[in-house]
Amino acid sequence: MLLVRARRCLLTLWAGSLWTVGYLVAPTLFATLADRVQAGTVAASMFRSEAWLSIGCALMMLGLLQWGAHELDAGRRRTSLLIVLAMLLCTLLVHFGLRPMMAALREAAGSGPLPTRFGMLHGVSSALYLIQSLLAGALIWKQQ
User: Among 57, 77, 104, 136, which is most exposed with the fewest C-beta within 10 angstroms?
Assistant: First the structure.
């Protein structure tokens, strides 16, 4: 029972942080700050912190699922493991793959307009974040 509660608390932290940063805080930054570059810089910093939190939560969740294997039936445990791994993959692709390319394009553009490629990378990054957010909801659903 303790492991079930630990998984629920961890999942609440993980999903809540994903949803809060991605769908409340970041849009509020762009709606509130007049300087879009500054809003983007702050949002990028927050998404960087969110990525590290996601990596930590994923690793802890994998450990809890492995350690508490006897508390879940095999099918539910396997599904949960696959969802956590998919969420971790989304984080790793965005944080270590797309974000460095986006940062390089932003730096190269300076204060000028961002290249079209930045918009494409941002779109892919946003899509992966949405997938991760939906997977978090699926994982919550699976824990019931």
Answer: 104
